[in-house]
Every structure is written in C-alpha cells, then in structure tokens.
C-alpha cells in the first residue's frame, strides 16, 4: 500500500551528508519525495512509497550516516502525494 510520510530529524544532522545519504537510501528503496535542511539545524522531508519500504527508510533515519548523531526522529503519515524522484531541496 502506497503512503506518504513527513519526517523531521534533529541532532547533529547538518554538515554530515545527511541529505545526500537520505536521497541515496530512498532511491535504493524506490521511494520518492524530498529532503532539506531547516534553519534550526534539523532536516525535514517527505517520502512516498510502499509501506514496507517506508519502514526501512524510517529505521535508517533513526541513525543516518556514520558521522550523524540523531537525537530525535518525528515521523507521521500524511495525505498521499506523488513525486517524480527523491530530491534535495534548498
């Protein structure tokens, strides 16, 4: 079943290639959406895809890339949206 989820990741998540590696993970899983840095130092995004694949991305986001320190992951389902790819937004 296709779903769309919003996520926000807090901690040491900027300057550690978090957006780039999130995009890589999403593309490997066949998930579409976007990710971007926020002024408060966190990272947010939306991800659309199969529920099982979204759960895999959610598990990955709890740790992120090796240099990251994730302190909090917010994750909530939202209205289904469609994206062409998984992009980094600025």
Question: Which key terms come to mind for this protein?
Answer:
90 residues; alpha+beta; Alpha-Beta Plaits; five-stranded mixed sheet; 2 helices; 5 strands; 26% helix; globular
Describe the structure.
A 5-stranded mixed sheet has the order 4-1-3-2-5. The protein has one domain (2-88): Alpha-Beta Plaits. The chain is an alpha+beta fold. It has helices spanning 18-29, 51-61, and strands spanning 2-12, 32-37, 43-50, 69-78, 86-88. 26% of the residues lie in helices and 42% in strands.
Characterize this entry briefly.
This protein has helices spanning 18-29, 51-61; strands spanning 2-12, 32-37, 43-50, 69-78, 86-88. The protein is α+β, with helices and mostly antiparallel strands and 90 residues long. The mean pLDDT is 98.
Radius of gyration: 12 Å
Give the strand order, joined by hyphens, for the main sheet: 4-1-3-2-5
Regarding quaternary structure, what we see is single chain
Low-confidence stretches: none
Please describe the biggest sheet, giving its number of strands, its sense, and whether it closes into a barrel.
5 strands, mixed
Helix content: 25-40%
Average pLDDT across residues?
Answer: 98
SSE class: alpha+beta
The number of strands is: 5
Number of helices: 2
Enter the CATH topology name: Alpha-Beta Plaits
Please report the distance between the alpha carbons of the first and last residues: 30 Å
CATH class: Alpha Beta
Bin the strand percentage: 35-45%
What is the annotated CATH architecture? 2-Layer Sandwich
Shape estimate = globular
Order of helices and strands: EHEEHEE
